[in-house]
Amino acid sequence: MRVINRHPGPALRLALALAPFALVLLAYAVASDLRLAVNPADKLLPAPSTILDTAAGLFTEGDRRTGRILLWHDTWSSLLRLISGVGIATAIGLATGLCIGLVPHLRAGLAGFVGVASMVPPLALLPILFIVFGLGELSKIMLIVIGITPVLIRDLSQRVLDIPREQIVKAQTLGASSMVIALRVALPQILPRVIGAVRLGLGPAWLFLIAAEAIAADQGLGYRIFLVRRYLAMDVILTYVAWITLLAFVMDWGLRALSRRAFPWMEAGL
Amino acid sequence: MSFVTAHDIFHAYGHRPILERVNLSVAEGEFISIVGASGCGKSTFLRLLLAEERPDRGVISIDGAPPAREPDRARGVVFQRYSVFPHLTLEGNLVAAEGLGTRWGRLHGAARRAARERARATLERIGLAHAAAAYPSTLSGGMQQRLAIAQALTARPRILLLDEPFGALDPGTRVAMHDFLQEMRAETGMTVFMVTHDIQEGFKLGDRVVVFDKPRWDPQFPDAYGATITYDFDARHGGIPFQTLKEDTRVLQSA
């Protein structure tokens, strides 16, 4: 029987899904053990138990100077930046995407510009953003916006163009104006695509967020990671990385669940 | 007497003529079937009637009105696919047929309730009342086309344009749809243009069958000339004009 035709049963499927995680953890544990056996003071690969202890402390114990639990404050300020940036980018992307997809004059004027703008490496603009918007929240949010908006516009305008011509014509024969077609025909049909595009955009958004925080911030998940790097505090870094991964995964999962619930008319394919 | 007129239509895509010297005059309430080989401009002619495109030369007018520049409420249309809105329920699709023409594309209050009432009645009428709250993707192809025709008629167009509406249906469903279309037409007295590949279907449903073909043909350069109307059959009484078929005797008698 060909391998492409062999399917795992439910139990095996679960085991196979968990196997890579288990393997990575195992490999880390073994490597850490080997290094610690040679040098008990090794900081590079702290023992899993050390990481867990550190993690428990990070989530529950306040800072010695201020008494604030830094991890929650970092999470809060990072999420605020991330969500503002992604939210603004989505609003701009949706509006511009609808315009480009529906109005030929705007398409002629904007499509080429957006195509070129999306090729500008956003991180290369970061110094400019720091100079123009200062080192506060605005420059970080702007980096996320500048980083993911062009991609969102390109994706969403293409989605609008993908709406069958028949439906646009049908709406016209029912008397719909351009604005009504945009709001009642095109917008509802690309909303599920917006969620898909945001899910894809969250990856780069985290990247830009952490890069901006690493360079200039006084709070935030990326700031903390790059701060404790100086003390080779691998246990803290690994805890933060795992926490960021969990946050990103929960967001992605939440968006997928939302699109399933909110758009029952979409056939499978999200 | 003539309700829809097409006068000396010429239409080309780039340097490729599609239609040339097309003249057609249609009385109100007539059912015109448009047949012809693939690539002979049937669908192009329908797009011109729909005003989705404007002819390079010539004029199409409905009831003496100036030629339309874009699709409007005078023209109802049903395509082979994608004719209903997938994001609206069946009832929503019929309400949208009344609501999309308003300023914000939405009816409110009493007008909305009345439209929903009418939508319910229409769904009852077309046998889809049980699925009023369902989305079109859950329906079969025949049901979707029935909804599409009802939706187009809800907007009360002057002419109804059908672009191979039953092309994607299986033969049994197709016959049922023929009955449905004939009933709807008997009720509304609508002027209908239907493009079809199926000549039998054209003669069964149409009052006239119009054939598009290329009268001139250059074997070295098939794209050199466009198509025009080469035949215009009277399709009443099964394509046997001036005589009626008596079911009981099966003898032809003069009408």
TrEMBL record, chain A:
- Give the Pfam families listed for this entry: BPD_transp_1
> What domain of life does the UniProt record list for this protein's source?
Bacteria
UniProt keyword list: Cell membrane, Membrane, Transmembrane, Transmembrane helix, Transport
Q: Where in the cell is it found?
A: Cell membrane
Q: How does it sit in the membrane?
A: Multi-pass membrane protein
| Keyword Kinase recorded | no
Give a GO biological-process term: transmembrane transport
Give all residue intervals belonging to the ABC transmembrane type-1 domain: 75-259
Under the heading InterPro entries, the entry gives:
MetI-like (IPR000515), MetI-like_sf (IPR035906)
Give me the Gene Ontology terms describing cellular component: plasma membrane
Q: What is its main location?
A: membrane
Spell out where the chain crosses the membrane. Answer: 79-103, 110-132, 193-212, 232-251
According to its UniProt record, which protein family does this protein belong to? Belongs to the binding-protein-dependent transport system permease family.
Name this protein carries in UniProt: Urea carboxylase-related ABC transporter, permease protein
TrEMBL record, chain B:
Extract the Pfam families matched here. ABC_tran
Residues in ABC transporter domain copies: 4-239
What's a single GO MF annotation on this record?
Answer: ATP hydrolysis activity
**What keywords are assigned to this protein?**
ATP-binding, Nucleotide-binding, Transport
Q: Does the keyword Nucleotide-binding apply?
A: yes
Keyword Protein transport present in the record's keywords: the answer is no
InterPro entries reported for this sequence: AAA+_ATPase, ABC_transporter-like_ATP-bd, ABC_transporter-like_CS, ABC_transporter_ATP-bind, P-loop_NTPase
Supply the PANTHER family for this chain: ALIPHATIC SULFONATES IMPORT ATP-BINDING PROTEIN SSUB, TAURINE IMPORT ATP-BINDING PROTEIN-RELATED
Family, per entry: Belongs to the ABC transporter superfamily.
Please give the name of this protein: Urea carboxylase-related ABC transporter, ATPase protein
Q: Which organism is it from?
A: Limimaricola cinnabarinus LL-001
